[in-house]
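Agenda item 2: phosphoenolpyruvate complex prediction
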Amino acid sequence: MTDARRPLIAGNWKMNGLKASAGEMRAIVAGASKAAKADLLICPPATLVAEFAGIVKKGSPVAIGGQDCHAAASGAHTGDISTEMLADAGATAVIVGHSERRADHGETDAIVNAKAQAAWRAELTAILCIGETQAQRDAGKTLDIIGGQLRGSVPEGATANTLVIAYEPVWAIGTGLTPTVKDVAQVHEYIRNYLKQYFKNDGEVIRILYGGSVKPSNAVELLAVPHVNGALIGGASLKASDFLAIAAAAP
Ligand code: PEP
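Presented output:
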């Protein structure tokens, strides 16, 4: 994840995957050369980070990330994982603020902001998720919500190497629904303008991913939208052939 202008195709395996899934990870690594135009990232469950990092060869376009982290480096936080632990296991990135964490675990923008800073402390790239609910979109509040999440969740000092924004409309996650290309373009342009305003030159190249029901059949169209610099993929990232087909669609 060194060239901030290459598209990034990231897979979020969520709570899926056992040791037996190593074959799927090997297939992704083996097929990665077909997606030479994109950087690839797989975020398996924490139990598989070290094993998958061991599968990825040095110099490969595939990297391994965590799905969440605690803001503290260590301490009495039963069941949590720190960014230092993820880095130690071989991760180079971590997802923060996924809507499932925001909804299921009450994560506020302030918590997400602290997690992003924790990612940087351990030299991980923060893949920071934002997105509106169906009710918020229906009420015409999408850009207000996105603006509020950006102001609250993104720490000062973001750079093209330390931050990736993932725009994931909550109503599109795991539903098979996607926004129109026009709607995606509008939100991504809004995010780009925000990043340029606050992070100047880096703001021009911080990658903005689209996420929400991306699959091989809609990847070409979504990845061609202006200011869409890659995708964050849930369900379709579990199968190497689907994930690689989406990656191959990166312009
Ligand atoms: C996600 O949860 O980040 C996601 C995009 O899921 P899906 O691709 O399954 O909609």
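Discussion summary: The pocket of phosphoenolpyruvate is lined by residues 12, 168, 173-174, 211-214, 232-236 (CB under 6 Å).
Owner for follow-up: CH.
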